[in-house]
Amino acid sequence: MLADLKNIGIKGLSEVYDSESRDSYVSLYLNMESLDNKFVERRKKTCSSVLKENRELSENFEKTMQTIEEYLDKSSREKGQKGLVIFASNMHGFFRAYKLGLPVENLLIVDSSPYIRPVARLIDEYETFGLVLLDSQRAKIYVVSSGRIGYKKKKAKDIMNRHKKGGMSQARFQRLRKGAVNHFLKDVSEDVKKLFLNHDVVKIVIAGPGNAKIMLKNFLPDEIKSKIVDTIDVDFDETEGRLVSKAEEAVLKDEKETSEKNMSRLKEEILRNGLAVYGLKETGDAVRNGQIELLLISKDYKIRGWICEKCQAADAGVKNRCPYCDGRTSEVDVVEEIIEFAERADTKIEFVEDNPALKELGGVGGLLRFK
Ligand SMILES: [Zn+2]
Fold it and tell me: May I ask the CATH class of domain 275-371?
């Protein structure tokens, strides 16, 4: 079965790490839409040769990879599966595999903890959305979560269409027809409301041919209407796969607009010297202090730095000893560390695409709850 992002339990994963900071966890992301059969082999060879000098880690890596490869051999691709994510460590007896209906890029990373950044990104981008497909007498209501249809309901009503009955005037026919359509739309709107509230839908797309999709809005309560991100024109008999991808595009576009809005908020707060932080050090500290309401991160930003094994302070650059407590440090991608801290504290993360202003500010920033 395809996994829901919610079931990956990113918070739990963010709490998993090797207490001695050894490179003992393997994280594997595989693009299943265009599977590169040689990818795993290539990365395995590279990582093996790097780990060779450390016998313990090398042995752990070989055994972990063996488990992963056995899993890959025996598991088959699910219908609609686009990605596969595995976190594993032999020495910690740790193995998790998730089949996803969402695309991921190939990655094999060996680190002291599961590499969760791509999952955090997917969670930010693919929120659960509701989709209503309708014309004036048929409707399908979907809840789409993590790239898969989690819930579906069909409705249809026989509405007199083109043919009026003998003796009925055109005006009367039109009146009756309009009444029946309205009745149908009201019915649909009640189902929509109930389902979408029950399934914690955050965004809604309305689709279909003609006018019914516009008319439906008149019957929806404000709390539902305010979640509509787009209304799209599609044939009622459009295949489900294509319908969902079209709706997904609308949702991703809305997500991009939201992240731009949040960037503007960050800039305004900084200008007013208000509730905002930026830069690795300040943002990292604020995340650890639980001050951040929304963490903003440049999408592909990585920076080499250190983390203190004792007090967990982290910053860019190279340091053998922690400047605050003189503890031992290890080398990390500071951005990934900030993401892990944020997940542990249930902080919402917004990944921002190619934004020069955010890059200028150090690639990370945050809106604060308090200062
Ligand atoms: Zn320290």
Answer: alpha beta
